[in-house]
Amino acid sequence: MTPEQRKLLDELEPEHHLSLDSKRKVWRVYAYGTTHQFTANKLGGIETAKAVALAFRDSLPAEALELKKPLLAQARSKAVGVSKQTKPNGELYWRAKWIELDPSDPLGQRTINKYKNFSIKKYGDKEAYNMAVKYRERVIFELGVVGGN
User: Fold this and answer.
1) Strands laid side by side in the 18-21 sheet
2) How many helices (H) and strands (E) does the chain have?
3) How much is the pTM?
4) Burial class (CB in 10 A: 0-12, 13-18, 19+), 103
5) What is the C-alpha to C-alpha distance for residues 73 and 67, in angstroms, rounded to an integer?
6) Parallel, antiparallel, or unpaired for β 34-39 and 26-31?
7) Chain-centre distance of CA 106, in angstroms?
8) 118 three-state secondary structure
9) Cα dihedral 38/124/75/117 (nearest 10)
């Protein structure tokens, strides 16, 4: 994006393609038809997370920002418990997520969120997605997991 385009965009909407989930303390950038998350806890605070998110957004070409929020559904998985995620450095991955009963809870009422990531950079988008789906299916089957997404 040219400096002129960036200046115009900032004048019109300073936080274009950027939103804050204040409950989770996460800044999100919408680009390439997906969501890129920048977590305050991992980045040392909400303002630092915002600065990193803005720097990430500003480093993107204009066409990356043309894919707006409504198209996010197209980037999501059709498989329950599998989603595309972004690391703070911008690297994309598919995440398999499930919920297990907490073994330290004698009443068996608490659960633990578990997940495994599959790098798109390492495996490619389609293969990383397939690996996440298969891994989650295997965990559900082998471990008798409660479920979850």
Assistant:
1) 18-21, 26-31, 34-39
2) 7, 6
3) 0.48
4) exposed
5) 11
6) antiparallel
7) 33
8) strand
9) -50
Write down the residue that tokens 């900032």 correspond to.
10
Distance (Å) of CA 147 to CA 39, 84, 135: 25, 18, 13
Query: Distance between the two ends of the chain, CA-based, in angstroms?
Result: 36
| CA nearest neighbour of 85 among 34, 49, 47, 132 | 34
Per-residue pLDDT for the chain (149 aa), expressed as one digit of tens each? 566 655 554 554 545 677 777 777 888 887 766 777 888 888 988 888 888 888 888 887 776 666 544 333 334 557 788 988 888 788 899 999 988 878 888 887 788 888 999 999 999 999 999 999 999 988 888 766 554 44
Instruction: Give the single-character DSSP code of 84.
Output: E
**Could you identify the residue written with the tokens 């390439």?**
32
